[in-house]
Fold this sequence. Notes:
The protein is α+β, with helices and mostly antiparallel strands. The protein is 20% helix and 27% strand.
Amino acid sequence: MNRVGRMKTVVALTSCAALLSVLSGAGVASAATSSSTDVLASYNGETIDLTQGWGSATVCAVSSTGTNCFTNQSGYQSWASSQPQLSSMAVTPATSCSTGLQLFQDISYGGNELILTTPSIWINLSAYSFANVVSSYKVGTCAVTMTDGTNGSGTIYPGATSPGSNVSWIGTAWNDRLQSVYLS
């Protein structure tokens, strides 16, 4: 290849790399991701930063309208029944899952519970102080993909992830290992 041909190749490759960099920076990707920066939640009339812990909250629900935490499951149920996007089955799948993925800190659906309803985005559990703590889960109306890396990287969890699946023990190999989830 002559010198002009090599220069054209270098310019073309450099242009492609620059374009990919711009598109990546603009958030254009096959799947969006949530950041693992501060996640603020409403809890008992206050605002808490979930990256710093949950305080006395035991249930936190993440939806397209924000994050809300509750002292117990009944507090969450009361709130959820008043939310049209969570209590109605007529929700458009692209906006929200009518029932969310419930992740539990302990086996048999015990301990703190994180409920996720926003589809089509990788959710990093570290943003909610919930990475590497999941021992059981219940899948709502949206299928899920769960991995042991951030932003969907790493190994994909091989267990039951279709809508309606309930797993009371994630197993020794995956206990306290999940780092990101994707609802579809």
